[in-house]
Amino acid sequence: LSRVEKVTKEQESRLNGLRQEKESLENKKAQLIQLEEHIRDTERALERWDDQVKQHHTQLKEYEELIAQRSTIEEGYTQFVKTKELCDELERRFRQSVNLEKQKSQLDSKIREAGQSLITDHALAQSRIRELEASSRKLPQLKNELSSLQVQLRHLAELDETLLGRRQASQELLTQVHHLESNKTQLEQEIKEIQEKLNLLSTQTEAKCPLCERELEVEGLKLIETKYADDRHSKSNSLKLNQVELDKKKTELESLEKEVSQLDAGLKQDRASAQSKASILSQSISEAEEAGNRLNEERKRLAEIEEHLSRKDFATIEQRALEELEGELVELAYDPQQHEEIRQRLINLQQYEEPKRRLEEAGRLINQEKEAVSRAEEAAQELRHSLEADNQKRQSLGEELNQLPRLVDDL
């Protein structure tokens, strides 16, 4: 039993040892994973630093090449600066010349407009004088036409009196027609009433008066019926005579109204035409009289315009300003051909502008670039040493971890 216990304790001790060894290897496995991640980060950092070293070397080489060409670049740039100053001066003269030419064009335009305006005024004055002379010559004829038209207006006034008489006659006929129509209506009503009485008597069989209810003999009824019949006949004859007279009066009224309407329409048309002509003639006469009064004034105005034109006495301020501008243009002495030649030369010399800027940059930054190269190379070297140590450590951990499968089998 003691031997079994001893073996058991030995097995337990060995098992615990294996477990501790496995745990240690598991920790080393974790360390290896972290180490590999660190190695990858270091490799990426080393790649970036190597790129920076290349970039700095490229920049440094460019700076050194620029410094080697300093004399050529500075000479070309000096020519560029001088040419640019001359070009700027010519550009200033060009802008001033353009401005002066613009002002000159505006002044020329104003002077031409003033001269053209005076010529136009001259033509208008001549045209007005011709019109005024023509209008003034029409005055006697216009007065004769107005006198004839006044005779016509007096005749139209007489016709107005005739029309008034026709209207009065038409009104009297209309009154008679209304009276006859009223009589006609009254007679028709009376005849209707008599007929109703006769109809009533014809239906009466008793010897009574159908109207007053008195006792009558047959002869009495017949006498009354005869009286009503005679009365109806008399009124019927009166109605016929009234109708004949009414038709006659209506015909006369219709004819007279037509005559009045035609006469009135003709008079209105003739009067409107005559009055319109009279108004136009009166206006024309006033204009002709006014034209005669204005002729001397227009002739005087025409003489003044002709004097201004002969002396070129117009836009005097603009003419003086134009003389001054022309003097300024001569003094400016701007030469477009020279300007174009200098502009082309400047374009050719612009190639030195950017090299000059970069040369100044090289002189200012070359020492910094050298220091940057040194720092980048040192950093890359440090990373290589660190990477070499990490790779050795990874190899050592890998060899130790090769025992892990055997240890798992033992467990």
TrEMBL record:
* One example GO MF annotation: ATP binding
- Coiled-coil ranges per UniProt: 132-204, 239-308
Task: List the biased-composition ranges (Basic and acidic residues).
Answer: 371-397
Provide the alphabetized UniProt keywords.
ATP-binding, Coiled coil, Metal-binding, Nucleotide-binding, Zinc
Q: Where is this region: Disordered?
A: 1-22, 371-411
From the Swiss-Prot or TrEMBL record, give the protein name.
Answer: Zinc-hook domain-containing protein
Q: Name one Pfam family in it.
A: Rad50_zn_hook
Can you give the residue ranges of the Zinc-hook domain?
187-222
Write down the InterPro entries for this protein, in alphabetical order.
Zn_hook_RAD50
